[in-house]
User: What shape does this take?
Amino acid sequence: MGAPARRRRLAVDERRALLLELGLRLFGARGLDEVSVEDIAREAGVSAGLLYHYFGSKREFHHAVTAHAIERLALVTAPDLALPPGQRLVSGLVRYLEYLRTDAGGWSWLLRGGGGDERLGALSEEYRGSIAAWVFDALPRQASTPVSRVAVRGWIGSNTEMSLAWLEAGEPAAAVVVRLMVAVLVAVLAAAGVDADVVEALRADAETGLRDLPG
Assistant: This one.
């Protein structure tokens, strides 16, 4: 009978990445305050001391989990610059919802703020700022005004609320939610005084992308 296979020792980066993924799942399922360092270590099959060695404290681990999750989401939803602006918008929103659906519990926790503090707020603000920049990069320069920037930030907030409601209810279909998000953006840009031709061009182009969605 041969000797048992030796378990491969994970590299530091691999172990750290696994801990971050585990943290997102546990915090999502049970909430930040209900998960201890010992719980995380036990689930990961490592000592609590090793987790402290990597991250320093539970709070630092929480910050690292949040930063990791937001970075990953930003990469997945990065705009496809090969597409026209409206279709780019639709494509990004589809990927955003599909990605949230892969771990509904974890993302519900994160979208609610993850038990926030100043550092978590800064991470969230950075992500929202990148989405706003993405929208205005798809529009003519003159579309960016103080009023339209307020409108787009409000649109980002409404997307968060729609995403949470959708994750919790499990319906309607993602395509329906994308249509709602596009309609809200078109409406707020128009209400903010963005040139009607610019808004109509965005709407018509987005409609081309929406026609390809199921449901």
Q: What stands out?
A: Residues 13 and 85 are 37 Å apart (CA to CA). The first helix runs from residue 12 to 30. Residues 1-7 have pLDDT under 50 and may be disordered.
